[in-house]
Specification:
about 300 residues; alpha/beta; Rossmann fold; 2 domains; 7-stranded mixed β-sheet
Length: about 300
């Protein structure tokens, strides 16, 4: 689609250039030879333009058809998936942390619940983490007792480390209140209980929200230092992927957590089938293999 639009724009530019050429040529060259040649070129280009427009229409129809098929496949996957989820993570205590300005994917929560996992908390990094407000930056400096000249990435690192600490063990009521009151972090659930693992949902739609290095990596390192299992995820259509950044830190990843196969892959990864799963170039496998008991809907 993008290539065809580029060619169409190029052809339009050629039409304009030829029109100017005809005008100039008719004033400089006697006879009709040059004009006839340019008119023939215009006729050929018009034919190509028509073919490209027809091809564009065809591609749009094909894309709509494929999208409809994909939607049906996802509906089918959701219909047959409950036995695959059923109590696979019974009693597993998990925290969800969302970065990149997104919300918790609804399908993720539903799948974890079907699997019997207990979601202890959901924590969302909010847009204020961009630190466009100089007054907010100064408040963060004062709270963490930092110099007022501290660069934004270091401030984000401090916020990330504080957030990870709250997710892991709670206790820091003052820090939690500060981060929430300043609309940096949204906390929901119970903090301070025993956790078996953390699900980190990254990826960003806004280029101004790309903080995998100054936020996500410090959350990941904190979770890993606490010897807790952490899996990095993102939705299939997110504009800016975090998968490469996550994989550099040696954790399992799922790049299509909004789709049923991705949710199955997440559950298998939690069970110990580590890997990089999904539909993007960074994935090494579409999804993990399913044991025979999965297909029977039993343990």
């Amino acid at each position: 689609m993008i290539d065809i639009r580029y060619h169409i724009a190029t052809l339009i530019a050629v039409f304009v250039a030829l029109g100017v050429g005809i005008l100039i040529g008719s004033t400089l060259v006697s006879g009709d030879v040059l004009v006839d040649q340019q008119k023939k070129m215009i006729t050929q280009l018009e034919t190509q333009f028509t073919v490209l427009r027809e091809r564009e229409t065809q591609l749009i129809e094909e894309n709509n058809f494929l999208k409809k098929i994909n939607d049906h496949y996802e509906d089918f996957s959701q219909a047959v998936s409950p036995p695959l989820f059923n109590k696979r993570l019974n009693g597993y205590r998990v925290a969800i942390v969302v970065t990149g300005g997104e919300e918790v994917p609804s399908g993720l929560v539903n799948s974890l619940s079907l699997a019997g996992a207990k979601i202890e908390s959901t924590t969302v990094i909010l847009p204020a983490i961009k630190l466009n407000d100089s007054e907010l930056s100064l408040k963060i400096c004062d709270f963490f007792e930092l110099d007022h000249a501290t660069p934004p990435d270091e401030l984000r690192r401090m916020v990330a480390l504080s957030t990870a600490g709250i997710v892991l063990s709670g206790g820091d009521v003052k820090g939690q209140d500060f981060l929430q009151d300043e609309k940096l972090i949204k906390f929901n659930g119970q903090y301070g209980g025993i956790l078996d693992g953390v699900i980190l949902v990254g990826g960003a739609e806004d280029e101004a929200f790309l903080y995998a290095d100054s936020v996500d990596q410090w959350i990941i390192k904190s979770i890993q230092n606490a010897r807790k299992n952490i899996i990095g995820c993102e939705t299939s259509g997110v504009k800016f992927s975090y998968m490469s950044a996550y994989q550099e830190l040696d954790l399992s990843t799922v790049d299509d957590i909004d789709l049923t196969p991705g949710q199955i892959a997440l559950i298998r990864a939690i069970e110990g089938e580590t890997g990089d799963y999904g539909i993007k170039a960074t994935a090494r496998k579409f999804m993990p293999s399913l044991p025979a008991e999965y297909l029977r809907g039993t343990f």
